[in-house]
Predict the 3D structure of the following.
Amino acid sequence: MTEREANGGRPHAVVIGGGIAGLTAARQLLRGGARVTVLEGSPDIGGKLRVSEVGGIPVDEGAEAMLARRPEGLELVRDLGRAGDLVHPGTTSSAIFSHGALRPLPSGQVMGVPSDLAALARAQVLSPMGLARVPLDLVLPATPRGASDVSVADYVGARLGREVVDRLVEPLLGGVYAGRVEELSFEATMASVAVASRSHRSLISAVRGIRQAAPGNPGPVFATLAGGLGSLPHLVADAITAGGGTVRTGAMVRGLRRTPTGWRLTVGPARSPEYLDADAVVVAVPAAPAARLLADEVPAASRELARIDYASMAIVTLVYPVSAFPRLPRVSGYLVPAVEGREVKAVTFSSVKWPHLRESAPDLIAVRCSIGRYGEEHTLQRSDDDLRAAAVTELAVTCGLDELPIACRVTRWGGGLPQYNVGHADVVARIRAAVAGQPGLAVAGAAYDGLGIPACIATARAAATRVLEHLDSRGELSHGSDGEGEQAQGAGPEPGDPLHDVVGIPGEDPR
């Protein structure tokens, strides 16, 4: 009896990578009629979604929120039967440390591009000279762009001046990509603004159009789970195993080869490899390992994946007694422009932002400090004590804290954030075109259409749909997809996908 016969004739789909994209793809494949195995090389699933206690408070180590205005994340939670665990921020108001002081994030902006010049002036984020430069955008001739991509710094700077780039756009995008605005793609990182700018000569007018078209009451910007967003991957994994799928950790895939009937994977150490056969494969790992896996069978995709660079960062989580704060913060957090020359690039007052954390520990305040930008890896080549000292110093200066934290956790995310540099959309299109030539193969994850959780889920749905269609075309499925993935066909970047979940500060001013 063959392995397939022993499993009721069901085709075998293997998902490489146990992050939220890989797990979501696996769950959809299982529900679509395939036999599913998830292979995760590290000791635990979840990728950059992880939660642990600091000072007795469960605080996420990576992404701490997902966008509630994109449906995919909330749909997944509800489909898992955990809608009752969803919680929303108590406040999303935020600040920017600019010209030596904390100042409110100007209302009316979208990803740092202003629409309300009076609100911009009141915020005092810009110098008088920088502020005077902004309205020239309304009278300047159109900035040539053609069909090619440009950097954020080049386009936004040409329209609004360099100070808007440095003190508004850069810190907002820095919270997502930890990248450099001179290299980040305008089309890929500011999609809604880029689209609107093609029908408006003025960038301010383009953003005004975006805001006017927005729904009057769009609801909460962010959501998380009461137990931390890091609990989501385990909920999905539990659903996979309950449905008969297999989730393996410590199972590093080192080789991927096509066979006459599908694919063969080499798993584990070279001295004692395991070989696993599959009818279809979803590669849901970061760009560099994906490039290595595809090098032999899909070299064109491998070359393009190798072009996607990554930034490293660290999140220092501190827990203070409430008494350490001369006055409690009223904002969810603040961003720090790179031009300020400070080590910490963003701060989130987690116990202020998330009321359920404050209710669980009313005498404590948890704070997350983000350190690290692309090209500044030396900043992270220091001890945990040094990073802790940098975060403590930051809060002493900005919040007047004169007590030490009672607990600290340093989480390092080496090569954690893909860089969507100029031409990123074309790179992704070439990857997908090359993969499309290989039946039964798909890719998913944060390297393609967005770093946020909903965007990753969308890529997973599209990948699973592609695989299920392939298996169904061979007559190998007893039934087709349950429909969950149909809406994700042709998944791409969501226009207006604001700030991502690592920092959790909105890139669009909520209406």
Observations:
- DSSP finds 18 helices and 20 strands in the chain.
